[in-house]
Write a structure and sequence with these properties.
Length: about 375
């Protein structure tokens, strides 16, 4: 539902971000290249925090679409805050992305490739607090060009967002072979087209999707969209939020469907599920994320629903680590003591929450009422 409202709030949210305009001298290109850089909210006030890097080709027109969506999605915690850099390609796009007759990069495209890999990423790493998790976004020619970054042993990008790529000869076969190869790292690949897309693009993209969808590579996280009411240009606005959602799905708060279809059906501990979810976030993105209150609530609901109250003790310990000054850990630990028959201890833990910060859904009054009820029932 959030995606439905995105166009109405992008401009509002962007006023809280910081956009920096840079011009860097490129030895590879022999000229200066202009950049647009959006820094996350509160970037300056969090000097120890690092962020994923999103590199936007065709930055002269695609940057604002990506930057706005990144700010919006990160505001709602559907993805981590990220640094977005747009590369200006006005007047140089064709040279930057030119493919030779033997399907390799032309001389000018090779120079642009080297600029991105050796100069731009180094510049962003040295001057801005960017993580090693990087996303490439391209449209048409640039979406085809950025695939060449995959054809190395260790690509500098972890995720690729290909918006209606103008697929050149040999690319479909080479890309399918590369993405079908099992590596010791994960690759995210998002591909999109539309009903009114350029006919040649749409045909080749549809064929490519058929092949990529059939791949059995467990380290490939692939997503595809074919928009009914869009063309080659308008599909970008619909694709970007979907692409970000597919790349950062594990970062998002636990959803109702995830709760119903995965957590409630677990034969193992739901607390372990929570731990593994956040361990995966750190593994994939290099981000040590604090477990949010929403996800604690979901796991607690699953414990109550399945009546597996023995898991409250471990959930309380984790809550105490992530939210030590709040009532949430006391509630879970007290529930554990109730379950194992230590009612007096549960009563005292409920009462101890009075000095802690109240969390919505875990009010001090409710916990004191529960303590009074235990006292009355057991005569303490």
């Amino acid at each position: 539902m959030k995606l439905f409202f995105i166009s109405a709030v992008l401009c509002f949210n962007l006023t809280f971000t910081q956009t920096v305009y840079e011009s860097i001298e490129s030895n590879a290109l022999g000229v200066k290249r202009e950049l647009k850089i959006q820094l996350p909210r509160n970037y300056e006030s969090n000097p120890d925090k690092n962020y994923p890097l999103i590199v936007v080709f065709d930055g002269d027109y695609l940057f604002e679409v990506v930057a706005g969506n990144v700010d919006y999605c990160s505001y709602w915690q559907d993805m981590p805050e990220a640094i977005v850099v747009g590369v200006n390609q006005v007047g140089s796009r064709s040279k930057d992305c030119n493919i030779s007759s033997d399907y390799s990069l032309s001389k000018s495209a090779t120079q642009f490739y080297e600029f991105i890999e050796n100069e731009l990423i180094s510049f962003m790493t040295e001057n801005y607090r960017s993580l090693n998790f990087r996303v490439a976004v391209g449209h048409g020619q640039t979406a085809n060009f950025m695939n060449y970054f995959l054809f190395t042993n260790r690509p500098v990008f972890n995720a690729f967002v290909a918006l209606s790529p103008s697929i050149t000869a040999g690319m479909e076969e080479n890309l399918t072979r590369r993405l079908g190869h099992e590596d010791d790292f994960n690759t995210f690949y998002y591909l999109s087209t539309a009903a009114l897309d350029i006919k040649r693009n749409k045909k080749k993209i549809t064929e490519l999707n058929t092949k990529l969808s059939a791949l059995g590579n467990t380290n490939l996280l692939y997503a595809f969209d074919n928009f009914e009411n869009a063309n080659h240009y308008s599909l970008a606005a619909q694709s970007i939020p979907k692409a970000l959602e597919s790349i950062f799905f594990v970062f998002q708060p636990i959803s109702k469907s995830e709760y119903k279809n995965h957590i409630l059906t677990l034969q193992t501990s739901p607390v372990d599920y929570l731990i593994e979810k956040y361990a995966m976030i750190e593994t994939l993105f290099g981000i040590e994320k604090q477990i949010i209150i929403n996800d604690f609530r979901v796991i607690a609901a699953a414990i109550d629903k399945t009546k597996k109250f023995e898991y409250y003790r471990e959930l309380g310990k984790i809550a105490s680590k992530h939210h030590p000054d709040t009532t949430i850990a006391s509630f879970y630990l007290a529930r554990h003591y109730e379950y194992i028959g230590k009612q007096k201890k549960a009563m005292n833990v409920y009462r101890s929450a009075f000095s802690l910060k109240e969390v919505d859904g875990y009010s001090k009054n409710d916990m004191l009422d529960r303590a009074d009820q235990i006292k009355k029932e057991f005569g303490y």
